[in-house]
Amino acid sequence: WCGVELSAANGRALYIPEGFAHGYQVLGDDSELLYLMSQRFKPEAARGFRWNDPTVGISWPLPDPILSQRDASLPFLEPAP
């Protein structure tokens, strides 16, 4: 995994290629997130895995996030055979 902080102050943006998993954590109350997608969003095609999956080991800045119902119910990855 790779972590990047995006802010108005640093002016960074991030390009995530199609098919790559991605997640984000908002660090402030007054935040905006903008997506530009190559195709119309299809909810039935959305996939994901649990934000705190130990297989991936992401070091999130905030340890106890507020999650959407969808994100809270995503599965953990299973170990590769």
Q: Top keywords for this entry?
A:
81 residues; 1 helix; globular; little secondary structure
**Overall geometric form:** globular
Oligomer: single chain
Through-space gap between termini: 21 Å
- Per DSSP, the total helix count is 1
Largest sheet: none
The number of distinct β-strands equals: 0
Write down the secondary-structure element order. H
Kindly provide the radius of gyration, computed on alpha-carbon positions and rounded to a whole number of angstroms. 14 Å
Helix content: under 10%
Structural class, from secondary structure content? little secondary structure
Task: Describe what this molecule looks like in 3D.
The protein is largely without helices or strands. The protein is built from 1 helix and no strands. The longest helix is centred in the C-terminal third of the chain and has 4 residues, at about 70. The two termini are about 20 Å apart. The mean pLDDT is about 90.
Write a brief structural summary.
The protein has 81 residues and is mostly loops. The protein is built from one helix and no strands. The model has no long low-confidence stretch (mean pLDDT 90).
Please write out the topology.
Elements: H1 69-72
